[in-house]
Design a protein that fits this description.
With 282 residues, this protein is an alpha/beta fold. The chain contains ten helices and nine strands.
Length: 282
């Protein structure tokens, strides 16, 4: 695995691959590599000749009271894991590489960025859309791999790529979970042992909602209450939202008729955790 920081070095390496006729897959990350990221690398590896991953903790997507400075940055461990997973090129840009002095441009995907995480974290998805577009313009991959755990982010990037006519195939890998069901996340590192036990309430609430759906429950309000019951049973879990929305538009639904996203966000100690499930025909 080769590791580079500067944009010209990335472009030169990818241009060399293109001359050889290689298909390129891209997995962007913010580091803190875990099995969820590695599952995306494996999916990318299976469908492409070359895999590029990036590590960049994007300051634009953190609010003023969020954990930008404290966000996990185990760089040596991350590099070792990505190398072992089969990454060909690791791009680790500095802030000045992507946001040089005087940068002014921001990217918005209206409507999709305004609910759920966008409502809870104003400006977050403007930062996400801006950095992803920059990354894609440098890498120009054939395939971009994203994780289902960050479903709203994936939906927004899919729309960005579609609307801006980028020749990139955006694919999602499934959420990877711990044995007890907790969705893997870099922020799980913030949890104490006791908080870690309480955090499984998010996945258990979604599992209960999935069981209700399979048994024929279609009322969104009842599905929300099913998830909330699991969260309320754990006093350390502070719920931010439980929502049942259309899986394409992210608009709230009253009754499940098409494909829906059931999304949850909660705080457990210092960690802010999110999880979701999708249900219904595509």
């Amino acid at each position: 695995m080769r590791s580079v920081a500067r944009i010209p070095a990335v472009r030169r390496e990818i241009a060399r691959w293109r001359r050889l006729g290689h298909r390129v897959a891209f997995v962007p990350t913010m580091g803190g590599i875990h099995e969820g990221h590695l599952s995306l690398i494996r999916l990318a590896r299976a469908g492409a000749d070359r895999v590029i991953a990036s590590i960049f903790v994007n300051p634009l997507q953190f609010g003023p009271k969020e954990d930008f400075r404290a966000y996990p940055r185990p760089r040596l461990r991350d590099r070792a894991l990505l190398r072992a997973a089969g990454v060909d090129l690791l791009w680790e840009p500095g802030i000045e590489d992507l946001y040089p002095r005087g940068h002014l441009t921001r990217v918005r995907v209206r409507e999709l960025e305004e609910s759920l995480e966008g409502f809870a974290r104003p400006g977050h998805f403007e930062g996400v859309a801006t950095v992803v577009l920059k990354l894609l313009h440098v890498v120009m991959p054939d395939v971009l791999w994203l994780g289902q755990k960050d479903a709203q982010q994936a939906i927004i990037i899919e729309r960005l790529v579609h609307d801006l006519l980028l020749p990139v195939d955006v694919r999602r890998g499934p959420t990877v979970r711990e044995p007890d069901g907790l969705a893997m996340s870099s922020r799980n590192a913030y949890l104490t042992k006791a908080q870690r036990a309480d955090a499984v309430a998010l996945s258990r609430g979604l599992a209960a909602a999935l069981s209700a759906l399979r048994e024929g429950e279609h009322e969104a309000a009842r599905l929300r209450r099913t998830v909330q019951a699991e969260l309320k049973a754990r006093p350390a879990v502070v719920t931010e939202y439980v929502a049942v929305v259309d899986a394409k538009t992210l608009k709230p639904v009253k009754r499940v008729r098409g494909r829906v996203l059931i999304a949850v966000a909660a705080r457990v100690g210092k960690a802010r955790l999110i999880d979701n499930l999708e249900w219904g025909p595509r």
